[in-house]
Amino acid sequence: MNTHYTSWRKSGHSDPNGHCIEAGHAADGTIGVRDTKLHGQGPILQFTQAEWAAFLQSIRSTQH
Q: Where do the segments described as Disordered lie (predicted)?
């Protein structure tokens, strides 16, 4: 993977024990998501802007 992500942001729904994710942005508009427990060394899921929007909508529609 050669995509460079910046501005990593930790989820506002993070677990106090450190189980959380971060999302970052690339210059081409893709969004990367990674697990914070791996300190930036693990895999990054890549989303297009449309995929990210659909993912967030799906999560929001299932929250109680």
A: 1-21
